[in-house]
Amino acid sequence: xxxxxxxxxxxxxxxxxxxxxxxxxxxxxxxxxxxxxxxxxxxxxxxxxxxxxxxxxxxxxxxxxxxxxxxxxxxxxxxxxxxxxxxxxxxxxxxxxxxxxxxxxxxxxxxxxxxxxxxxxxxxxxxxxxxxxxxxxxxxxxxxxxxxxxxxxxxxxxxxxxxxxxxxxxxxxxxxxxxxxxxxxxxxxxxxxxxxxxxxxxxxxxxxxxxxxxxxxx
Length: 218
What we know:
Blueprint: H1 3-7, H2 9-27, H3 35-50, E1 56-59, H4 65-72, E2 77-81, H5 84-93, E3 98-101, E4 114-120, H6 131-141, E5 142-153, E6 159-165, E7 168-175, H7 179-188, E8 192-199, E9 209-215
Parallel strand pairs: 1-2, 1-4, 2-3, 4-5
Antiparallel strand pairs: 5-9, 6-7, 8-9
Helix pairs in contact: 2-5
């Protein structure tokens, strides 16, 4: 891990996604054709609704497709993303929903106000040293009984450093982790792991996908 990974990762991640936002949105124009993934999101939405009416924050919301899907499932949802360009695209595509610029590492939200947190393939840009505090922040903003659903590439290897995508120069670090390590950090943050699922790669995917569902006691 380099110094830039730990001190500048927020800025390099933001700048990289600003650079590729339009191309990324064009590459992924709608909901993923992944039945297992979508079923887990539907189950997460059901758990949130069963616990009350508090909203869900979609962290790393990108173009906003999943935020809108949660809303269609009957869950009040809003998106938070580091990239102003991604936020602008999401607002344009889904004008009836709220999207804000922000970082999941320092959520600017009151205590115990969220019914759920969804973070699909967004914790992958956070170095290991910053995840415990990030998950402690999740615990702080969730209502008792609130749920977290995380998705990320599963791996034992350190990850990747990508310097080009869609023909643009970027500086993105991807951190791969075993599912149990993420679960252990959630537990340390005061959350209870309810389920862990590993899905094998589909189509052009190269790495297995891990899903971890956790709950704030209460």
